[in-house]
Amino acid sequence: MNTTATRGNYPEQYYPNTEKLGAGEMRIVALGTGRPFLRRSQANASWLVELGNGDKFVFDFGFGSQMNFTALEIPYSDIKAWFATHLHTDHVGDFGQVWVGSWTGGRLKPLELYGPSGPEKKYGFKHFCEKQMESYAWDTDTRVGALPAVGAEINIHEFDYSKTHVVYEQNGVKITSFPAVHQYDGPVSYRLDWNGLSFVYSGDTTPSQFFIDNAQGADVVVHETFNTVEQLMERSGYDEKSARAIGTFIHSAPEEAAVVLKEVAPRLAVIFHFFNDFDTAPEIQEKVRQHYKGPLALATDFMVVNLTKDEVVTRMTEISNHVWPNKAKHDGFGEAKRKPMMQMSDWLREAQLFPKVPSDRGLIYRGDD
Fold first, then answer.
1. 300-319: string of b/e by CB count within 10 Å (b at 16+)?
2. d(Cα 122, Cα 239) in Å, to the nearest integer?
3. Which of 118, 200, 222, 269 has the fewest beta carbons closer than 10 A?
């Protein structure tokens, strides 16, 4: 990570649940910064935005990102809404964890999911969510007798991908979607505005006028860039044609993203979606610096940005690998409505060594009545 931003009065590291966010402050945490190839050091794309008014939002939820989210020990019920930029699995692959993991983790309200339409119904966010839910039928139908039924509910908000428009506006927060140029029709980028502060997240995109126009005046801009063509050839084993197609046509090369960042001139530019290693980062940074000279951070998982009107501070998070669900919002969990428990076949039940049966006291051993 490289940035010209100061650390101000913040501690060297960010420790979850130890720092109260200021009333006019925004905190951005990188939950996933890597590429579609999943590795332990970098989960797939995901970004958490926390606001001083108490609202929290997650942008994208690629594979592995939910392990990073839970490490922050945030109650799932705190998340107002989840926003998907497009339907590549490295941006929505943790759907099952977002849905079921948050449910088993204590969520006591429907899941609010936002995502773009497509040029055909089958390429839209609603179709994706509904088919995902259908594929999890055994999982979720077997849980509703033991977990609050409301946790199985999802409110799907699909919006037109082709327009620049406000898709969420509540409690002083405005989130705008605008088209992203990424391989085919459907992908979008987002801009969040609140209390005079702004965060813009590209998702996946090649450099576009859409992004330049909609990111003007933004405080923190997170723009994707892939590893260089040379790195893709040498380290990933791609042939030159494939490396150039992936690294420059489908994604933004570092020097290309830099052109956009120069035009936008944010208070802090953040690049992500590349393997950020000691031997790859210098070349990527050098190529960005061909065009963009402003404040810059090369993102890795658990990087934190604290943003106020006076300063921008970047740090890293100190986390535990052995967290349990945060119980702060679990009041009412035991009293919440459940559906009748599904009953297994008699021949399966007869083989159960310690049979249990449902009762008004929950699950009890036979004979305990």
1. bbbbbbbbbeeebbbbebeb
2. 32
3. 118
95 Cβ neighbours under 8 A, 6+ residues apart: 61, 128, 129, 132
Assess if CATH 3.60.15.10 describes domain 13-324: yes
Task: Provide the whole-model pTM.
Answer: 0.93
Q: Spell out the residues 6+ positions from residue 351 whose beta carbon is closer than 8 angstroms to its own.
A: none
CA 162 to mean position of chain CA atoms: 22
Domain boundaries, the chain: 13-324
* Owner of token pair 């849980």: 143
Cα separation, 315 vs 10, in Å, equals 9
In angstroms, what CA-CA distances link 111 with 18, 80, 95, 288?
Answer: 27, 8, 11, 38
Give how far Cα 312 sits from Cα of 122, 250, 297, 317, 364, Å: 41, 31, 11, 16, 55
pLDDT digit string (tens) for 312-341?
999 999 999 999 988 888 888 888 888 888
Tens digits of per-residue pLDDT, 95-110? 999 999 999 999 999 9
Asked if pLDDT for residue 56 goes beyond 70, the answer is yes
Q: How far is Cα 26 from Cα 308, in angstroms, rounded to an integer? A: 6
Q: What are phi and psi of 189, to 5 degrees?
A: -120, 165
CA–CA separation, 362 and 275 (whole Å): 48
- Could you tell me which of 167, 174, 95 has the C-alpha nearest to residue 132? 95
Q: Helix 281-288 vs helix 254-264: angle between axes, to the nearest 10 degrees?
A: 50
Task: Give the pLDDT band of residue 368 (cuts 50, 70, 90).
Answer: very low
